[in-house]
Design brief:
This is Roadblock/LAMTOR2 domain-containing protein. The protein is built from 4 helices and 5 strands. The chain has a 5-stranded antiparallel sheet, sandwiched between helices.
């Protein structure tokens, strides 16, 4: 029996489950996805609309830039240095982006910081409910 393969399959199932829960439990959620920061790949997504594959690929790249782009990494390193932090933990855990009509919330997983969840809602979403719902679902799926 291939234990590594089974563990990867279980993790994939858990990510798919989390994306589905986010899509259904976050108020007014239009789309959600899970990005692997180690590879820059979109691991899974749920959406109310169909999107061209190149847009989904760009979402993964944009998420990587938001959290681990060169300038962001430099800022994290400066903050850590000034605060005497020596861990490799990432400083930025959540990023909220408002576009013309949409709100995009990016949240690092609380156990595996190479996993970032992306949730897209209409700009009219209650921001407090958005954060609370996403944090709850991510925390409940935080075992991978």
């Amino acid at each position: 029996m291939n234990t590594i393969g089974n563990n990867q399959h279980a993790m994939a199932d858990q990510l798919v489950s989390m994306a589905k829960r986010l899509r259904h439990e976050v108020p007014a959620c239009l789309a959600t996805g899970v990005v692997d920061m180690a590879t820059g790949m979109l691991l899974t997504y749920e959406t109310t609309d169909s999107h061209p594959p190149e847009v989904l690929d760009m979402l993964a790249g944009a998420t990587l830039d938001l959290f681990q782009g060169r300038t962001v990494t430099m800022i994290e390193d400066i903050f850590k240095e000034r605060r005497g932090i020596t861990s490799s933990e990432h400083y930025f855990q959540e990023v909220l982006v408002n576009s013309t009509n949409l709100t995009h919330l990016f949240v690092r997983n609380n156990v595996n910081d190479d996993v970032v969840v992306v949730v897209v809602c209409p700009k009219s979403v209650n921001i407090g409910m958005l954060f609370a719902s996403v944090r709850r679902v991510v925390k409940e799926h935080g075992t991978f």
